[in-house]
Amino acid sequence: MKNPPSSRRSADDRGFRLATGFSALLVVLLVAAIGLELYRTSHLSIAKFGLRFWKTTTWDPVAGQFGALPFIWGTLYSSVLALLLSTPVALGIAIFLSELSPRPLRTPLAFLTELLAAIPSIVYGLWGIFVLVPAVRRLEVWTPDWMKKIPLFSGPPLGVGMLSAGLVLAVMVIPFTSSVAREVLKAVPSTQREAAYALGATRWEAIQAALRYGRTGIIGAVMLGFGRAIGETMAVTMVIGNNPRISWSVYAAQHTMAAVIANEFTEADTDLYLSALVEIGLVLFVITLVINALSRFLIWSVTREVKVKTVAPVAPPAAAPEAAA
Amino acid sequence: MNGTTRRKLLSGFVVFLCGAAVVVALVPLFLIFAYVLQKGFSSLSWDFFTRNPRPVGETGGGMANAIVGTLILIGIASGIAVPVGMVAGVYLSEYGKKPFGSLVRFTADVLNGVPSIVIGIFAYGLAVLPVKHFSALAGGLALGFMMIPIITRTTEELLNLVPGTLREGALALGATRARAAFSVMVPAALPGIMTGILVALARIAGETAPLLFTAFGNRFFSTRLDQPIASLTVQVFTYAISPYDDWHRQAWAGALVLVAVVFLFSVLARVVTRRLERMHRT
Fold this sequence. Notes:
heterodimer, A: about 325 residues, mainly alpha, MetI-like fold, two-stranded antiparallel sheet, about 70% helix, about 0% strand, B: about 280 residues, 10 helices
């Protein structure tokens, strides 16, 4: 049923579509341009060091020796530590807000937890330097001797170091993981819980059923938090001690990829030095790109079913699909 | 029925743990707020807003240069990001069902997750390396790139809240798609879109990492776009890691200003979005 619009009008419509589509294309091009530009600038270092760049531990700008392993180590260590600390809390929040919380508390609590994501990184860092680090130092001084023999807790009590970084990162990551996990749990059909209850399940067992149903999305939520932790710069660099040494100890001052870029970029006096830093940035870019893409895909695979459902029928207001709580 | 009791106890225990998790997350939030408020208010003064930094080692002075610098930087950023992001958002809500729409949405989300320091390197390569000096323009560019995906997604989301019947009405009256979008749909969603922009602004106003080697920072008052420029965040960073007590105090004052702006915008956004949702639901 082609209606006959004037040809001018359909030309206008096509123009509108192309013009707005161009803006949308710019978003895609931007990501591609970032990748290309980083690759171009890091070419010198890639050509000179190759894979050795990621396997060696000597970072000596004066001698022109660049090995980035300590930074990779620090980034992974701090992010995994943050993940271990934040995931139980974030999932607890998501479960509480979507399944357990009394209705009037739900919105304000969600708002408050998400406020954690709004606090600028630099404020976390400032708070970290003046409040958290002294507190961590006190904790480290207080460590009993038998514990210090374990490599995980060895070394002098500096305050700055992996533990402080992990704690700050954990707090910063919580709101991202919890809000996505909440979306995922919301997307789990209430029939899943009702079926569990009908079989005589307790609350926790019904929640487990919901978690199992949405587990792909939950994994996505955790990965999203991981991506955030890997790229976090300011708060980490202010509390981790910025020392490129590989150590298992959470008390040791270490370094991360993002932190070394932030610290040394303006000091890079040779092309090779700059190029080495940009190569670290390039890898950071690629890692976060992959993690984000993967997590978005996982989240989408769970939540899309709900989106489809909300479009189709107009549910009567009485039958609001709330969990049988 | 020992088993049942145990299951019930376990269930109660887990419910308790989930509630405890909320408390655990809120403790750092309140601690940070408390410290920033307490330390910030005691160091905030009129001078903070009106004076420039004093020479190193002298106490007093303020961050007037950094406040103006931040305003200029977010001005440049919005000049770039608002048109691009808004129009891309209009595209997504009008034609976004096609595969290309999904691709754009996906890239925008991924771009949103790219570390800000990486965006900073990109802006450095684009605007600092060719001219061999830091500039406000480079800083604004970096912040603008960060804003684009946020504005694109919020614009789309809020346009989707506007009932499609409005568009159909406009089209039925003979309007072109462009007219229906910009004269009917966008105005209907405008309060929401404006808040979306405010939220994006609040987020980039608190960014430090991408400015370190683009806008760089400046101890003096400057409004020139081709020169290094101060910003609140970089100044707070420099002061925080300095050895001077007076600078630490000013850093807390700066943090208070940042947190206040962010908090205000978040609450505002919340209120407007709620109202829009309620308005269009019926």
